[in-house]
Design a protein that fits this description.
binds iron/sulfur cluster
């Protein structure tokens, strides 16, 4: 399982990239995207997905 970013709602603030323990987030064109192969839903690091916690646009959802 992994999370994904709804690209049309991402404001490219960069918060999710900064807080991801797996370096699963990166720029894709003008917005950010999650590499599903790297996203481990923060398991082993945090109780809740950090990207979801910090996203001000609330545009990160379960893939
Ligand atoms: S859920 Fe965790 S591991 Fe997955 S992209 Fe978000 S911060 Fe990174
Ligand atoms: S925290 Fe949300 S708005 Fe900011 S770059 Fe990530 S997905 Fe986009």
């Amino acid at each position: 399982m992994a999370y994904k970013i709804i690209a049309s709602q991402c404001t490219a603030c960069g918060s999710c990239e900064f807080d991801c323990p797996n370096q699963a987030v990166g720029m894709k064109g003008d917005v950010f995207a999650i590499n599903a192969g790297k996203c481990g839903e923060c398991e082993g690091f945090f109780d809740v997905p950090q990207c979801v916690e910090v996203c001000p646009a609330e545009c990160i959802v379960r893939a």
